[in-house]
Amino acid sequence: QVQLVESGGGLVQPGGSLRLSCAASGSIFSINVMGWYRQAPGKQRELVADITSGGSTDYADSVKGRFTISRDNAKNTVYLQMNSLKPEDTAVYYCRADINYYTDYAGVSQYDFWGQGTQVIVSS
């Protein structure tokens, strides 16, 4: 009923930039927090940045000053602008959204939805 679709990953040289997008679609009533997480090989998934419906943001220390999260509430879309990329930013990036959605029999329910992930490789 609800899905998150990510785009914008790819291969970039150190110091370069990428912009990730994540669009939520389906029977959406409202969206609370939206965020980006990443998981590098052999490591646990970690929070990169998140943003509330009111626009308050939070960032991992490792990306502060380089990454910017934003959202377009009208489009149910969250973005991650990544600048000054480093090899250690290489990971699969996942979108997460806390969504209130319409159900067939139970009115509105709440659930944390995840995207399928998009690969970011920072390498020369």
Molecular structure report:
It is a single chain. With about 120 residues, the chain is mainly beta. The chain is about 0% helix and about 60% strand. It is built from no helices and 11 strands.
Radius of gyration: 15 Å
Q: Provide the β-strand percentage band.
A: over 45%
Averaged pLDDT: 96
* Structural class by helix and strand composition: mainly beta
Which percent range fits the helix content? under 10%
Number of helices: 0
Question: Could you list the spans in which at least 5 consecutive residues all have pLDDT below 50?
Answer: none
The largest pleated sheet is described as: 7 strands, mixed
Termini gap = 40 Å
Order of helices and strands: EEEEEEEEEEE
Number of strands: 11
The outline comes out as: elongated
Short note summarizing the structure:
With 124 residues, the chain is mainly beta. Helix content is 0%, strand content 60%.
Which key features would you list for this structure?
mainly beta, 124 residues, single chain, seven-stranded mixed β-sheet
List the topology elements.
Elements: E1 2-7, E2 10-12, E3 18-26, E4 28-39, E5 46-51, E6 57-59, E7 67-72, E8 77-82, E9 91-102, E10 108-114, E11 118-122
Parallel strand pairs: 2-11
Antiparallel strand pairs: 1-3, 3-8, 4-5, 4-9, 5-6, 7-8, 9-10, 9-11
